[in-house]
């Protein structure tokens, strides 16, 4: 054999030996969860492709971060897994007394609570945390605490929340305080240095001292977050003893590799965004689920862009949005020409639910649906055409209607986002439907930042985007108030439809200040009805969270009970409840050993043959020399 | 031109390039738009005051020229700022350097050694069956998209055979230390290392092959053979050293790109290096981190270019004279 061929053989053999040799051993320990059987910690590994934005509860903002904080910290009152109502049985707070004027709220806590470092956890910690968040305007919490004046601790187990104005928000009748409580003995040193507090990575047990069932013990950026059992967890005393010792959140670079890991059993649970991957996993025996989540997608409309120049109502129009879209009849006609259920089936492959209101059906104020007093805005092209005819939008010769006030054709810019495939995929459907009612759209794609800038400038007609609201509807309802319009071209606020309706604003204020929770529900439903009538948002669908787990795990508690998320709920309860099916369960480690053996045998055989060939050829070469 | 003058000119050129890159980076990322609205949507729970704070924290409340001066001055003082998650850019980058050096560095070196070796063997016996076979293989490897090859390898080795992990650098949550930790890292390294080595080696072998083929037609090879020098020595002393020159240039330039990581492969294999960091930073539009990363990449490439220039003029006096 010539030397060059020898090199070739060596390369092939080398790859086989290095590859299969080291790999053979891997097959036998492919599932971290299987380590329980070997005496190591019982580990549950869930995965996604989204790295935490930060583990610091004053910095992070992604759902990923909230899931981890829910394990590490407590909020004063937990959301029940059934329907987001207050769950005093599984909270650090056991009851709330509200004063009759709706201004003072006294919270009673469990006695004997401890932090994960063994220090006592008292009402002082709660009061300190709430005041600190309030004082520093911490983004995640600023809206919840807007009506709070201050919090104070009366004794170790009692704290009082003083409101700025009468409200039912803090009465404990529904969960409103979504604030993670921090230990003052750890964070108190940043009392006067919020900037330094924000720079705490919070990625180790010394910093991440908490009161939840699991505590962050390690974070390797873009790799994984590891949480271990909190030895002082208060839940043990009320029957909330976790069945696993360790929870690992593994961060993949792409969903294909994540799906591969789930099939190989090296992770136990995975989140996905691509329906086809979920369908494939399902066909291979993995348990899959499309969970109902509050996130929704809408077509936002420029209802008349204007800067809110003073809080009492003065405003100055800006931008170049189409006049016709300020007319509620045109917006209603568009609503009637778009069939959300078709988009859900064709674009989302069934993994979504058609939506009517920005307030999710599972919200703390309950489900709302259009009733007999609301206009009929169901899908009906003929009815939409009739509405536009009656309002004087005459059909032009080219099939595009004309705005009678400006003489301009109904041609609207329609923005999708580059990073959001469904927003692009819906365009042909919307284009065709609107064509049938004499409206032409000009589809364009922008990145999210640019679209944000375009909206601030008011230079748009329609766009596709979405929100992920809290279980309490206060925040999502707030974005439709007049005061959420930006005051000038440099400052963002939350309104992206420039909707402004004094009647709606009045109700918004009323739902904040009423002290009767039942009355609040009525008002919120009334507001939903107004939004449905006025259509600043053409609601498309509520998203689903695509998730899958191996057959090795059970005990998942979904929130809400009816079709909710199996794992990343608004609290730690599912993580506390999950457990391996049996001691031998937890993955596909069975086949790995024999495969490894076969490959090892093949590799050894290849090495022997290669060695024999090399030895022969060397001898021949020596003979030739 | 004297050697010293040549050196000074080259270094000056490198510094100028770096200054240009610095300015370019700043405007490149600003062109992506203001991320405040996106952050507001993602956070979904911010008062106007909190939004204004956020904008100030990101340094986006100042006029553009002022932002630029601030950026340039701070970078000169090696202050790269803070990432979106409030961590220093410099430590964030430093943590991702070693995984990248481990994966991209080793596989680049392995592919250079193997590629050059194969290229020499091919070029020496140009047109032979061996040459034709390897030419076919290397051309296929050269043309093959890395992400596709990587995914195929994951399917095969991580799912079907279940003998390699489908990504990552260590088994999360496994608490290995010492030798067990090293073995664990090697297991995770094997698959991406293999994919990268195989994808990269084609380039080196093709260059080495064509370069050697050209050298073999030179008169001094003929002379050496006429003098009765043994074939092996003709190859080792006369042909290969001359044919190596273009390969050395490509090699050193490639080493400059090592720090750039392999964004695609690091993302496919969830490898915690600079490539993955870049991918995530683009997703978050983390300006400070992106500027820091691009600065590091640019410095690496500029330094590699400088080294290649200087080394080349040392190895080949004709370059210096020109």
Task: Write up this protein.
- The complex is a heterodimer of chains A (about 625) and B (about 325).
- By secondary structure, chain A is α+β, with helices and mostly antiparallel strands.
- In chain A, about 35% of the residues lie in helices and about 20% in strands.
- Chain A is built from 19 helices and 19 strands.
- In chain A, the strands form 4 sheets. In chain A, strands 1, 6, 7, 8, 9, 10, 13, 14, 15, 16 and 17 form an 11-stranded mixed beta sheet that branches. Chain A has a 4-stranded antiparallel beta sheet with strand order 2-3-5-4.
- In chain A, helix 9 packs antiparallel against helix 11 (about 380-390) and helix 16 (about 500-515) runs antiparallel to helix 17 (about 515-535).
- Chain A is globular and about 80 Å long.
- Chain B has about 325 residues and is mainly alpha-helical.
- Chain B has 14 helices and no strands.
- Chain B is globular and about 85 Å long.
- The termini of chain B are close together.
- The mean pLDDT of chain B is about 85.
- Chains A and B meet through helix 1, helix 4, strand 8, helix 7 and helix 14 of A and helix 2, helix 3, helix 5, helix 7 and helix 8 of B.
Span from first to last CA of chain B?
A: 8 Å
Largest interface: pair, residues per side: A-B, 94 and 83 residues
Task: List the quaternary state of the chains.
Answer: heterodimer
Helix/strand/pairing category of chain B: mainly alpha
Number of strands of chain A: 19
Radius of gyration of chain B (Å): 24 Å
């Amino acid at each position: 054999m010539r030397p060059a061929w020898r090199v070739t053989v060596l390369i092939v053999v080398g790859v086989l030996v290095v590859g299969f040799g080291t790999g053979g051993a891997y097959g036998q320990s492919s599932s971290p969860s299987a380590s329980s059987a070997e005496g190591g910690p019982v580990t549950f590994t869930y995965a996604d492709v989204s790295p935490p934005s930060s583990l610091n509860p004053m910095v992070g903002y992604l759902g990923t971060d909230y899931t981890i904080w829910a394990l590490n910290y407590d909020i004063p009152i937990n959301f029940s897994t059934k329907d987001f109502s207050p769950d005093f049985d599984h909270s650090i707070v056991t009851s709330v007394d509200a004063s009759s004027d709706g201004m003072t709220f006294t919270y009673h806590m469990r006695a004997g609570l401890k932090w994960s470092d063994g220090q006592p956890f008292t009402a002082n910690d709660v009061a300190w945390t709430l005041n600190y968040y309030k004082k520093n305007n911490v983004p995640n919490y600023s809206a919840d605490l807007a009506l709070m004046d201050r919090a104070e601790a009366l004794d170790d187990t009692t704290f009082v929340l003083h409101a700025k104005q009468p409200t039912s928000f803090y009465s404990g009748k529904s969960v409103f305080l979504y604030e993670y409580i921090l230990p003052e003995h750890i964070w108190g040193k940043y009392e006067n240095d919020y900037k330094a507090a924000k720079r705490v990575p919070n990625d180790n047990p010394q910093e991440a001292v908490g009161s939840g069932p699991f505590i962050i013990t390690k974070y390797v950026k873009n790799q994984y977050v590891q949480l271990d059992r909190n030895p002082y967890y208060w839940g043990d005393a009320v029957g909330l003893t976790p069945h696993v010792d360790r929870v690992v959140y593994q961060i993949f670079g792409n969903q294909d590799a994540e799906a591969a890991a789930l099939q190989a059993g090296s992770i136990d649970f995975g989140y996905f965004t691509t329906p086809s991957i979920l369908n494939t996993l399902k066909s291979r025996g993995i348990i899959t689920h499309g969970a109902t989540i509050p996130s929704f997608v809408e077509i936002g409309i420029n209802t008349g862009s204007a800067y809110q120049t003073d809080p009492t109502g003065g405003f100055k129009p800006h931008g170049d949005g189409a006049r016709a879209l300020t007319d509620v009849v045109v917006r209603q006609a568009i609503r009637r020409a778009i069939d959300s259920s078709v988009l859900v089936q064709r674009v989302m492959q069934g993994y979504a639910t058609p939506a009517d209101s920005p307030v999710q059906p599972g919200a703390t104020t309950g489900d709302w649906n259009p009733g007999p007093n609301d206009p009929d805005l169901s899908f009906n092209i003929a009815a939409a055409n009739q509405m536009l005819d009656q309002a004087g939008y005459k059909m032009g010769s080219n099939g595009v209607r004309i705005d009678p006030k400006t003489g301009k054709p109904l041609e609207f810019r329609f923005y999708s986002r580059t990073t959001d495939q469904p927003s692009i995929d819906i365009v042909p459907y919307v284009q065709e439907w609107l064509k049938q009612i004499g409206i032409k759209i000009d589809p364009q794609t922008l990145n999210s930042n640019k679209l944000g800038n375009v909206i601030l400038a008011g230079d748009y007609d329609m766009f596709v985007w979405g929100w992920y609201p809290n279980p309490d509807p206060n925040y999502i309802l707030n974005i439709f108030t007049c005061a959420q319009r930006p005051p000038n071209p440099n400052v963002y606020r939350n309104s992206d439809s420039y909707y402004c309706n004094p009647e709606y604003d009045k109700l918004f204020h009323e739902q904040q200040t009423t002290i009767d929770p039942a009355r609040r529900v009525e008002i919120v439903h009334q507001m939903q009805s107004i939004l449905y009538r006025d259509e600043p948002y053409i609601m498309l669908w509520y998203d689903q969270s695509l998730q899958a787990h191996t057959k090795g795990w059970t005990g998942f508690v979904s929130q809400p009970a009816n079709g909710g998320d199996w794992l990343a709920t608004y609290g730690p309860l599912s993580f506390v409840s999950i457990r391996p099916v049996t001691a031998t369960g937890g993955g596909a480690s069975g086949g790995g050993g024999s495969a490894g053996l076969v490959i090892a045998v093949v590799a050894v055989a290849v090495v022997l043959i290669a060695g024999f060939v090399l030895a022969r050829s060397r001898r021949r070469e020596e003979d030739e020399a | 031109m004297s050697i010293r003058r040549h050196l000074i000119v080259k270094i000056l050129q490198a510094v100028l390039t770096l200054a240009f890159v610095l300015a370019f980076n700043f405007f490149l990322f600003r062109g992506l738009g203001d991320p405040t609205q996106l952050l507001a949507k993602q956070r979904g729970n911010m008062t106007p005051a909190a939004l204004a704070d956020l904008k100030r924290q990101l340094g986006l409340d100042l006029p553009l020229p002022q932002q630029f001066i601030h950026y340039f001055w701070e970078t000169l003082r090696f202050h790269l700022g803070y990432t979106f998650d409030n961590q220093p850019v410099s430590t964030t980058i430093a943590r991702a350097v070693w995984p990248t050096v481990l994966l991209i560095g080793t596989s680049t070196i392995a592919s250079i050694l193997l590629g050059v070796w194969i290229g020499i063997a091919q070029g020496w016996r140009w047109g032979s069956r061996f040459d034709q076979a390897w030419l076919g293989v290397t051309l296929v490897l050269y043309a093959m998209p890395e992400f596709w090859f990587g995914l195929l390898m994951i399917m095969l080795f991580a799912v079907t055979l279940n003998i390699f992990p489908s990504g990552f650098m260590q088994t999360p949550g496994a608490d290995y230390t010492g030798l067990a930790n090293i073995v664990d890292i090697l297991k995770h390294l094997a698959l991406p290392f293999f994919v990268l080595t195989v994808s990269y080696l084609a380039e080196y072998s093709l260059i080495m092959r064509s370069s050697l083929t050209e050298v073999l037609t030179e008169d001094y090879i003929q002379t050496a053979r006429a003098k009765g020098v043994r074939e092996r020595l003709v190859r080792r002393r006369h042909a290969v050293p001359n044919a190596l020159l273009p390969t050395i240039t490509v090699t050193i330039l490639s080493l400059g790109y090592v720090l750039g990581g392999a964004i695609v492969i690091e993302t496919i294999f969830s490898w915690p290096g600079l490539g993955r960091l870049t991918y995530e930073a683009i997703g978050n539009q983390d300006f400070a981190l992106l500027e820091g990363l691009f600065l590091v990449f640019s410095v690496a490439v500029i330094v590699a270019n400088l080294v290649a220039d200087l080394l080349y003029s040392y190895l080949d006096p004709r370059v210096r004279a020109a």
